[in-house]
Amino acid sequence: MGPNKWKSILLTLAMGGLLLAMLLLPLHAGARGAHAAARVLFVKPHGPGTACAQAHPCNLQTAIAQAADGDTIYLAQGTYTGSGSAVLTLSKSITLYGGWDGAATGPIARDPEAHPSVLDGESQRRVVYIEGNITPTLDGLVIARGNATHAPDFPGCGGGVCSFRATPTIAHCTITGNVASMGMSLSGSGGGIHIRAPNGTVVITASRIISNAASLYYHGTGGGLTLLSAPEARVIHNVIMSNTAVLSATRGYGGGVAVSGESDHARLQGNVVQYNVAIGQGDGSRNTQAYGGGIYAGSDAVIIRDNEVLSNTAIITGGSGSGGGIAVMGSDDVTITDNQVAYNVAQQDAIRIPSNHGGGIYCFSGDNIFIQGNIIQHNTASIPYTGGGGGVYLSSCHQTTLADNLVRGNLASHAGNGYGGGFHAYASRGLRLDANRFLSNTASLAPWGRGGGLYFSRKTVFTMTNNIVAANYAIREGGGVAFETSATQPVTGTLVHNTFAANDRGEGNGRIAIHLNDPYVTLVLTNTLIYSHTYGLYATSGSTATLYHTLFYANSSGDTGGPGTITNMNPITGQDPLLAMNFHLLEGSPAIDAGVPVPWLLTDIDGEPRPLGAGYDIGADEAEFQDIYFPLVTMHTP
């Protein structure tokens, strides 16, 4: 990100904060009633003062008792503990600032890094409990070692912070070492922070949520943070790292963040979500299921944008895992855009339990899911056993769109059966794949790998336009694309202007670009470029493919083959397509202007206009060559 973009972001945040302050000022003034002006109070861990003045600070509980709506409390460096069910209980719209330098006179100075103000639950109690129709702010505090197991209000929720009906702002805080539940039969939610049913827009920003756990021994949701029925919540520019939804149990959702209930339009943006785990140790059976090592979204219209979702794990061992990076379940209208989703694992260790899906992104039972502009790379669905969709897995996610994504270097399974190294869709209708790059993905390193790039199975209906599928790897079937069907669960696909190149990295049938390896597959391909395989397209008995204006080259066993029904209209064969290293067309390619018109298709994989010149170019790229003009120089000689 360039410096100008950062300046723009900072300016926008500053203007937004000023506007918010202007809007809230009359509300706070009215709420204070008889108070003429907001007070500023000062505290130290064992402050002896009674007036809570800068020169004579009081302790935290004294300041809380004196404060009214709109007041501000500055906390000096030190550790603050409590004796009740929480270190701090808030029922007023006040602001707490950590990091005060403790100076008795002069301007108020604070630096939370140099002067940490630690609210410590001592592993005995929750740290902060917030309740009521209030808008408090926590800024620059360390919230540590909370335990909500025996809390009187919402036990098992929010070891660090639990907020009910309130609308807090949490900024520049460090929330670490908290546990929501240590009970053997008590579910945990929000190890670090639990937000429940706020009356407004909650904001959690510029904070570090590190090494928290929702539950140690039972079901857990949101190791770092849970938003429960928190519509419009904003989780922006935080570091959410090394949290665990459940250490040892059979259900875990969202190692880093869980968004559930009616949290419609919640937004996760600009966060680093890294090294989180949904379940550490399962019971070794199929009953153990983990969803969303990094992020779990179980609400409609959730926005996941501009995040780094890195090196998260759905389950380490003892069960099945889905969504190493992100899991979306039972939700409609979710958007996942412009994220980096990399090095995540759905199932990591050596318990051989199948049904592991979506190393990077997993979606189950949703409509209108939009996945665009992401870098989805080096994710793994399963290391020891069966895995599907190393990069992305969809199951019954209808009207889903994948557009402009880079899906690269993902692995469905390392040592077991693997289906769809880059992408796997199951029973998903109305699926659109537009202008993606599926590069160097692997179905499996073991012999049972199908669909190095993509795998479409059972009742899936899809349209695939302007994609590049190149250098993918499978041993069993379909280096580029493979399928799974039955008589009652066919697969139907429409493919327009796609490029399949060099998906011959595996062995045997794994070197076929498009392998209709099951019956009941029906494909229609228009303006397709298929280069460097054994077969370009191979159809087994009972499958059907109709091809229009396909450019075949360097397919060693044949352009098409197999006992299935193949209709091949106006192919171009025996001519080198002249592809660049990025699989775009070079000048002079026979693919240029050689396609059949597709009037509804207006752009190519790069968003450039289609057609250019006399006609439509075959493949994902519409070639554009710019003339270079040299200035005319007049030379004068004596």
Using brief descriptors, characterize the structure shown.
disordered C terminus, 18-stranded parallel β-sheet, 638 residues, disordered N terminus, 67 strands, mainly beta, 6% helix, 3 domains
pLDDT averaged over residues: 93
What distance lies between the first and last C-alpha atoms, to the nearest angstrom?
Answer: 54 Å
Could you tell me the radius of gyration in angstroms? 29 Å
Low-confidence stretches: 1-36, 627-638
Describe what you observe in this structure.
The protein is mostly beta strands and 638 residues long. The protein has three domains: 38-120, no CATH class; 121-353; 382-638. The protein is built from two helices and 67 strands. The strands form six sheets. It has an 18-stranded parallel sheet, with helices on one face. The protein has an 18-stranded parallel sheet that branches. A 13-stranded parallel sheet has the order 4-7-10-15-20-25-30-35-40-45-50-55-58. Helix 2 (60-66) links the parallel strand 1 (40-43) and strand 2. The protein is elongated, with a radius of gyration of 29 Å. The two termini are 54 Å apart. The model is unreliable at 1-36 and 627-638 (pLDDT under 50).
Describe what is shown at a glance:
6% of the residues lie in helices and 40% in strands.
Question: What is the fold's blueprint, element by element?
Answer:
Elements: H1 3-31, E1 40-43, H2 60-66, E2 72-76, E3 78-80, E4 86-90, E5 95-100, E6 117-120, E7 126-131, E8 137-139, E9 142-144, E10 161-164, E11 169-171, E12 174-176, E13 179-181, E14 188-189, E15 193-196, E16 203-205, E17 208-210, E18 213-215, E19 220-221, E20 225-228, E21 234-236, E22 239-241, E23 244-248, E24 251-253, E25 257-260, E26 267-269, E27 272-274, E28 277-281, E29 289-291, E30 295-297, E31 303-305, E32 308-310, E33 313-317, E34 320-322, E35 326-329, E36 335-337, E37 340-342, E38 345-347, E39 356-357, E40 361-367, E41 370-372, E42 375-377, E43 380-382, E44 387-388, E45 392-398, E46 401-403, E47 406-408, E48 411-413, E49 418-419, E50 423-426, E51 431-434, E52 437-439, E53 442-444, E54 449-450, E55 454-457, E56 461-465, E57 468-470, E58 481-484, E59 491-496, E60 499-501, E61 514-516, E62 521-526, E63 529-539, E64 544-548, E65 551-561, E66 565-569, E67 572-573
Parallel strand pairs: 1-2, 2-5, 3-6, 4-7, 5-8, 6-9, 7-10, 8-11, 9-12, 10-15, 11-16, 12-17, 13-18, 14-19, 15-20, 16-21, 17-22, 18-23, 19-24, 20-25, 21-26, 22-27, 23-28, 24-29, 25-30, 26-31, 27-32, 28-33, 29-34, 30-35, 31-36, 32-37, 33-38, 35-40, 36-41, 37-42, 38-43, 39-44, 40-45, 41-46, ...
